[in-house]
Design a protein that fits this description.
Length: 283
Amino acid sequence: MPSINHGEHLPQYLKVITFIQNKISNGEWTFGQKLPSQRAIAAAFNVNRTTIIHALEELKAQGILESKPGSGTYVSNQSWSNISKQVINWNAISQYSFHAGNPRTIQKINDYETDSTVIQLGKGELHPSLFPTQAFRTSVENISGSFNLCGYSDGAGEIPLREAISARLQEEGIHYSSSSILIVSGALQALQLISMGLLQQGTYVYLEQPSYIYSLQVFRSLGMHLKGVAYTGGELDVHDLETQIRANKKPSMLYLNPTFQNPTSKTMSWNNKQDVLALAKAY
């Protein structure tokens, strides 16, 4: 929570009430929005939860807040007009999109991303305590004097980086010049560019079930049809895939995460990869 001006002479529960009313009146908290937990508010004000409960009950009595059993405390719509002064509910507006929303299961997973009490096994990220902070700081300091770019760089990526990648690929027998290499911000941007450049709306995208959740919305947003393929113990069911391909008879693409698959962490066997490759060549 942001820093708080508690006031000097108000009782603690009134400071909490004033804080919440200000959040609502300036439009930061809009109707239907869930408030931070009682524990979080208590920590911000350095008071016990009893004080917070007293303040929340007062605001509920005024119709400013409402409780939803098992869910939490929310800004009420009943007296919104009395406190808000025609504030636009940008949070509600931002929920709309030209594209279909994520399924509820994925929405729940996204909600847990900001919950510090939940261990994020699917993200593959180090815990902050494991990050080599000092080594990273030293590296940045060592190269800080070499920065001389104040505008936009090459849209395809830094030329020295592309040249280094080209040289590395040639060592592996893959011959592409630096001008043929495009640096992307991450796998999702690459998937989006591939989908926009190579696929047509309505293309069937076959993928492991389960698959990497953040890739699903990329394909959906571009009008692709997702088809799950049985995936057990790190092995893709090639027979299931071929059966679906024959039944659909439309342009299709296979999206796989064969090494340390997300979310299962499994790696496909060499034979399974060869079977998939043979099927791709056949179709």
